[in-house]
Design a protein that fits this description.
Radius of gyration: 27 Å
Number of strands: 3
Largest sheet: 3 strands, antiparallel
Shape: globular
Order of helices and strands: HHHEHHEEHHHHHH
Helix content: 55-70%
């Protein structure tokens, strides 16, 4: 008895199925085009909303810790550690006795002693109930990234009159940030206690000790280091956003004209 080979079955989409798939593809393409058109026309609004959320989340971390919502808070800390060192002596604290703390105060809270620890251990400290909980990025990042949002709002208000910033001027605004951040990084290589930006003995000599000792040493609020981080952060934001936003605006304007010419 001869054995027949198995039958071969072929599946073909019906004309109705093909038509439905084509309609879905056309609808998706139309949606993408509408979304692209909206973003081109309203890119500044979208950018400000995203920047607002980006700046809000670090402040929610200590709020969540205060409410006992530890996992969402730690998720925010874990996300923002990718963009900031989160050193507690250079961070702001909410819901505690003080707004900022000296390194010795933080070490005592961590280990019960003032013996120095490696930076990665320092950055892992997020606070305690009596001290409060740190914002999820440092004071420099509050100034720099917060400056993105604030300068963006100013640009939105002065959009018709703000014609742009020359790239050389933008670099000049960002130079203090690079110098201050760079010297901090070099100083930290020598140790968080021994670095020249920790003591600022050079500044005390230059100013003939005209200011109180707490102005020169450490990173607490009111110190030279904290003031420089705030000032250079906002200057860097002015340079970056002051140059970038008008440039993007002109590019989006050209894109809008091109789209209209194709209609």
């Amino acid at each position: 008895m001869a054995i027949r080979p198995p039958s071969k079955f072929h599946s073909f989409a019906s004309p109705m199925q093909t038509s439905q798939a084509s309609a879905r593809a056309d609808a998706f393409a139309a949606f993408v085009n509408r979304l692209a058109d909206w973003l081109v026309r309203h890119w500044l609004l979208a950018a400000l909303v995203l920047l607002g959320l980006w700046n809000l989340l670090p402040w929610l971390a200590p709020v969540f810790m205060k409410l006992g919502w530890e996992w969402p808070a730690r998720g925010i800390y874990a996300l923002y550690v990718l963009f900031c060192h989160q050193m507690p002596q250079r961070s702001w604290f909410l819901f505690g006795e003080q707004f900022t703390y000296r390194m010795d105060d933080i070490l005592m809270a961590m280990n019960g002693s003032t013996e120095r620890v490696i930076p990665i251990t320092m950055r892992s400290f997020i606070g305690a109930p009596e001290m409060g909980w740190k914002v999820a990025w440092s004071d420099r990042m509050i100034s720099f990234y917060g400056g993105w949002f604030l300068v963006g709002l100013v640009y939105a208000a002065l959009r018709d009159r703000w014609k742009g910033m020359d790239w050389k001027l933008a670099l000049l605004f960002m130079l203090p940030l690079a110098i201050d951040g760079g010297t901090h990084m070099i100083s930290d290589l020598g140790g968080l206690r021994e670095g020249f930006r920790e003591t600022n003995a050079w500044l005390a000599v230059l100013t003939n000790n005209a200011f109180p000792p707490e102005f020169y040493a450490g990173d607490q609020w009111g110190s030279f280091n904290s003031i420089m981080r705030m000032i250079t952060g906002i200057l860097g934001a002015i340079g970056l956003i002051g140059f970038a936003f008008p440039y993007i605006d002109r590019a989006m304007g050209r894109e809008t004209e091109d789209r209209r010419s194709q209609i």
